[in-house]
Amino acid sequence: LEVTIQVLADLARGAYLALLSGACESMPPLDADARRLKQALCNLVSNAIKFSPPGGEILLSATQGPDGMAALTVTDRGRGIPKEDQDRVFRAFERVRRPGGPDHGAGLGLSLVRRIVEMHGGNVSIDSRVGQGTTVTCLVPLAKDPAPCAWRALRPRSPRRPCSSSTRNAAPRRDGRAHGSRARPTPPPRSRSGSA
Questions:
Q1: Neighbouring C-beta atoms of residue 134, cutoff 10 Å
Q2: Averaged over 87-110, what is the pLDDT?
Q3: pLDDT, tens only, 61-78
Q4: What span, in angstroms and rounded, lies between the C-alpha atoms of 25 and 167?
Q5: In whole angstroms, how far apart are CA 103 and each of 99, 108, 163?
Q6: Alpha helices, DSSP H only, in the chain?
Q7: What is the pTM of this model?
């Protein structure tokens, strides 16, 4: 949550909005791709910023939900969405008119949010009332084997083999040769020819 707020802090500040976050301290870690989940939350918060009046607040929260799921919510106090249009906002390239404002821009933002959450075995729901605001809730599985980090990190890449340049700063050998160099055979002494 804090990372999402940091990413969108300037955008919210420019719209005269406050971004707030709250999470349960005993919250278990999530079984999720941190990068993808951050992408989904950024989409939700960007959408909330777009349709919130100046001087308002947007709340991000994380709580432990039912059946081994975590509930990630984004709540705004914007214009709201009519009930008959709430299912359409998650469809790709849909335009939904919000009361007192422009159409919801056609795009993949909210459709992508649903796709990311469902890829993790979760689901997305929306609760919106015209003139009062909107709350979007993403249910994401909790990790069965808790790790010390808040979200499961991406699988690390295999370490690269050290390159030969790393030996340049190595301590010199006693025989004067560089590390990793092959020893050159010592040529035999030349015989001196001539009369005694």
A1: 25
A2: 63
A3: 999 888 889 999 999 999
A4: 47
A5: 9, 15, 56
A6: 2-14, 34-50, 109-119
A7: 0.68
